[in-house]
Amino acid sequence: MSTPTLLGISGSLRADATNRKLLREAARLFGPCTYVEADLRMPLYDGDLEEAEGIPQAAVTLSEQIATADAVIMSTPEYNKGPSGVLKNALDWVSRTKGGPWAGKPVAVMSSAAGRAGGERAQLILRTYMVPFRPRLLPGPEIHLASASNQFDDAGQLTGEMYIKDLTALMENLKAEIVR
Q1: Burial of 72 (0-12, 13-18, 19+ CB in 10 A)
Q2: pLDDT confidence of 180, banded at 50, 70, 90?
Q3: How many whole angstroms from its chain centre is CA 83?
Q4: How many CB atoms are located within 10 Å of the residue 26 CB?
Q5: Residue 168 neighbours by CB distance under 10 Å
Q6: Of 12, 32, 55, 63, whose CA is between 20 and 30 Å from 91?
Q7: What Cα–Cα distance (Å) separates residue 172 from each residue in 140, 141, 167, 169?
Q8: Is the dihedral of CA 152, 154, 155, 160 positive or negative?
Q9: pLDDT value at residue 1
Q10: 58 or 179, which is more confident?
């Protein structure tokens, strides 16, 4: 099998976000792969805008990245007990593109947040957002990175043995889904 391509989608736009760090760690623990990070900077979904200007190039690019990736890894922060608006907006725009890029795509979902629950509610809601797209969502192990800013060393690697063990297992499960 050739080197798989993993698409990382972070629900945080911040360059140094713990969700980005978590995705990069997931890709590292996955093993040899081509890792691509999505850019979710796009206008708010607006049917009038779509009618007047069409689907923004950023949404088309994201849709194409999803379609061509062998698997997708997503990580969401928890904002007010749910996923970020940026992530929901990107999902809404991609839903307007042709071809159903999510259908049958292996997807691993995780969350990273400052609180002690590690974004558990946001991750649960994100999973429900994904249902209409019909990807192959991995059931686990679930990764809810709590007190996230304290979980990485200076090189951006996870330090907690439990998180490393579970994230490694999730990436092994994702590899098995790609082979299917």
Answers
A1: buried
A2: low
A3: 11
A4: 24
A5: 18
A6: 32
A7: 11, 10, 9, 5
A8: negative
A9: 57
A10: 58
